TrEMBL record:
This is Retrotransposon gag domain-containing protein. Residues 97-127 are annotated as: Disordered. Transmembrane segments: none annotated. InterPro entries: Retrotrans_gag_dom. The lineage of its organism: Eukaryota, Viridiplantae, Streptophyta, Embryophyta, Tracheophyta.
Length: 127
């Protein structure tokens, strides 16, 4: 299919795009759709579900990936489903606290602002 409709240059561009693909600000579902679309151009990079799962996990946002590591999931479908569940849970927790998981563009964890010191002096404890 690819050889018939895409030039070598276009195919190489799609392979490179697949290799650079990261979740970034996408939801897991959006990332998975893009991952699936681009993976068609690079079948040798994901020869089985274990390779596919590893590459998918490597592209997830660090806070999601960190929560998935303890499960040691090797199957792509299991990993994708678990990533969806974790993301949904993080979004629910963030909504409860008035934030949106992953909405922050500055890279701060869970949308929180960094602490800044020295603004308000802390009074000493009196005994």
């Amino acid at each position: 299919f690819n050889g018939k409709y895409f030039s070598d240059y276009t195919r190489e561009q799609k392979i490179a795009e697949f290799q650079r693909l990261r979740q970034g600000l996408m939801y897991v579902d959006q990332y998975e759709a893009k991952f699936t679309e681009l993976s068609q151009y690079a079948p040798r990079l994901i020869e089985d579900l274990v390779d596919r799962a590893r590459r998918f996990k490597d592209g997830l946002r660090p806070e999601l990936k960190d929560l998935l590591v303890p499960f040691n999931l090797k199957d792509y479908n299991d990993l994708y489903e678990r990533a969806q569940l974790i993301e949904r849970n993080l979004n629910e927790q963030a909504a409860a606290s008035g934030l949106r998981f992953g909405s922050n563009r500055e890279g701060n964890r869970f949308g929180k602002k960094p602490m800044t010191g020295g603004r308000h002096p802390i009074p000493p404890n009196r005994k």
